[in-house]
Amino acid sequence: MIKKLFFSILFLSSLSSYAQNFTFGAITYDDYEFDRKRLDSNANAIVLKEFGTARIQLDDNTGRLELIFEHHVKIKIYNKEGFKQANIIVPMYKDDNREESISELKASTFNYIDGKFVETAMDRKAVFTENRSKYTRLTKFTLPNLREGSVIEYSYQLRSPNLFTFKTWEFQTDIPKVISEYLVFIPGIYTYNVSLRGYQKLADQKVELSKECLRLSGVAIDCSKISYVMKNIPAFIEEDNMTAPSNFKSAIYFELAEAQNINGGKISYTKTWKDVDYELVSDRNMGSQMKKKDVFKDLIPGIVKDAQDDLAKAKAIYNYVQKQIKWNNYYGKYTEDNIKNAVDSRSGNVADINISLIAALSAANLDAEAVILSTRDNGTVNKLYPVLTEFNYVVAKVNIGDKSYLLDASEPLLPFGLLPLRCINDQGRVINLKKPSYWIDLKASRKTATNYILNGELTDEGKIVGLLTTHTQGYAALNKRKEILRYPSPDEYVEKLDERLPRIKILSHKILNLDSVENALTESYEVEFTVNDGSNGQFYFSPFFINPITKNPFNLSDRTYPVDLGASSDERVMINLTLPSNYKMIEKPQNLSIALPNSGGKYLLQCAFEDDKIAVSQMLQLNNAIYQPDEYFALKEFYSKIIQNQKSEFLFKRPAK
């Protein structure tokens, strides 16, 4: 899926001519009449042409090198669903010193009216910027006068100080593309590692020498002129249960490996892990902070005074840091300032919190390390060589006896040893103050488990009354606790829950272990609801009203990327209902037992009626956290059978009066 591309500065005569930009506004009748069936008959919009170019040049005003990136695209809109392609967002990086900027923006909509194309140019007032975060600014604009059948076109130039990653080019997006072309000019003083991600193949690629493309201090520098072309590119459709789309979309990535000074000498950016270990351990906002045990020296005795062993100590320290420092919702592998300020102000980013945890564990003479990682929405990291910019998060690792525990104290509702789902992403790198770093698998330490138990009876009035008890553990408990605590009180949560369940009335409730995150969360509800009356003294009862599966989560005809649930799961439903005497069962749901290949999971359903009692037992197990693309069809069929079976009901006939 990730392919390393190597280029020499030679003319490859066997390949076709270079990618070239196209004239803005040159809309043709063929553009207007383009038949989407050629790519995707269900497409709401299609990119007809896309061209990009990137080069490095000297900014005469600042004397600094900068990246100049140009993007030009033409899109055919087929229906109103495709109108969203006219809402353009261009993310731009910024920091305290420099930022990216956009210029030369043009955007127009073309409609075919009375036998000719009529252009509606975008008003400059339609362009605005938004500060998304400390490091990201967004330029947004919307093209005007949209109709079904419109062709839209826009182009812009982006100036960036970021030479390290050059400029990524996404061949694949959420709509199909007829052709996407990228032309780059890389000065000979720079060497980049170039990789192609995704499952789509290049239709063409070409490398040639471009003479004197850059001049520094009077010295002319040649460039590698490289073109990449991809054609007939399918849309990338995102589905639930996946990590970052950037892991799977077809795109070209660049990483600066080496820079040569025009006066001689080289700087290597492709470092070994030994180099990176030294850099991180020496960094004032990472290794230096991990060493600050003195911040907690006077606090530790009080924190661990009731602990009987090292595991109890670690849990006490973890709970203290969870409560002491509130997360400011920023990620990071480096502290914003220092951990003492974070402890005193009771606020900090992820690194402030978890490096404080490492220092506190070390102050208690526990073996603690840091683990840097990339979150699920940030993509997986390169294993061939270390690229520190790919890591955006840090957690703690504590080693007790022959066991290790990964800890993130930024989430106050996480139990000890369970990382938030955002961190469950392939592997992280363990950073030790004294030993070489190494890779560690990032896996959920607990399965997601939910048990529903309903014990009740059918009254003569045709209502079912009973006690519904739910036990949740793992991520299910974390999510449920977050949901409950969004309300001022559990009572208000239950009130809103009652409103969302029109057929079920909650008579009373009890919620246990809401704050005891190490234990299963238990909810008990006395409920009442009416069954479906049929004719001739008959009534229907569906046993699938508790968390039913009504929609298949897997709907693609083909999925080229894994199904990543983050954790294995186990859900069970037990229903025991007593009916008045002499009721006769006419129909019932069929018992079902199905399994996924390779012990990947199973679904069991057993329904019985005996001695005036309905007994329903339902179990859904998914034994893997990750299912590979070749297992997708089996998952899809697995859920289809469950959904089909859950459409059935019990049918009973009441005794004659």
Automatic annotation (TrEMBL):
Entry keyword Signal: yes
Specify the species: Pedobacter endophyticus
Q: Which InterPro entries match?
A: DUF3857, Papain-like_cys_pep_sf, Transglutaminase-like
DUF3857 domain: residues covered:
69-188
Q: Which UniProt keyword terms apply here?
A: Signal
Name of the protein described by the UniProt record: DUF3857 domain-containing protein
Pfam families given for it?
DUF3857, Transglut_core
Signal peptide positions on this chain: 1-19
State if Cytoplasm is listed as a keyword: no
In this chain the Transglutaminase-like domain maps to 299-387
